[in-house]
Amino acid sequence: MSKPGKKEQAKLPPCPNPTCRESRVVRNGSHRGRQRYQCRSCKTYFGETQGTPMYALKTPAAEVAHALLIVMRRGSLRAAEELTGHKYETISLWLKRAAAHAEALTQVLASDLRLSQVEIDEFWSFVQKKRGQLSSRTKESAGAAWSKTATVASSSPVPPVH
Fold first, then answer.
1. pLDDT tens digits for 51-76?
2. Please, are residues 23 and 33 in contact by the beta-carbon 8 Å criterion?
3. Is the separation of the CB atoms in 36 and 28 below 8 Å?
4. Per-residue model confidence (pLDDT) at position 125
5. 31 φψ region: left (φ > 0), alpha (ψ -120 to 50), beta (else)
6. How many CB atoms lie within 10 A of CB 139?
7. How far apart are CA 67 and CA 82, in angstroms?
8. Element containing residue 41 per DSSP (H, E)
9. Considering all CA atoms of the chain, what is the largest pairwise distance in Å, rounded to the nearest integer?
């Protein structure tokens, strides 16, 4: 039989420090309910979500995954906002984080959420479309568009109420 310590050691994450030569990671308490670790070799402290799209988020992973799944299936940030209660700006940031970790997230979408390849492709095409829309807008152009909309709305006649 193998020693229990060796089995436990295999479940610990590797040290995220690229200059660390010998990864000797141990558990080191928790913060806000999330496990913390320390590498005894290089004295680096890190959390279980470091290096993932979930790093430094206070929202549970299940809620983020649910919101992204709604965006993928409905094709709308507003729909996800209405169904989850999270602001569309927040969901948009989650999409950007997801895009930065595309390869790992694709594996999660396929295995954990049991999505087909077509559904995964639709998801990434939606992310790419939103990324293009967000990068093409600037604060000035968004403000100008809002001003034009307000001007048109205020100059249009209001029908009388009977």
1. 777 788 888 888 988 998 898 888 88
2. no
3. yes
4. 78
5. beta
6. 7
7. 10
8. none
9. 87
> Is the Cβ–Cβ distance between 17 and 6 less than 8 Å?
no
Predicted confidence at residue 40, as pLDDT, reads 94
The H or E element containing residue 153 is helix 139-155
pLDDT digits (tens, 9 = 90+) for 71-100: 888 888 999 999 999 998 999 999 888 877
pLDDT-derived band at 155 (thresholds 50, 70, 90) equals very low
Q: Which helix (H) or strand (E) holds 54?
A: none
CA distance 96 to 74: 18
Q: Rounded to 5 degrees, what angle do the CA atoms 29, 30, 34 make?
A: 145
Q: Using an 8 Å Cβ cutoff, are 94 and 123 in contact? A: no
Residue type, 151: T
- How is the beta sheet containing 25-31 ordered, strand by strand? 25-31, 34-39, 45-47
The amino acid at residue 42 is C
How large is the angle between the packed helices 88-100 and 77-84, nearest 10 degrees?
Answer: 120
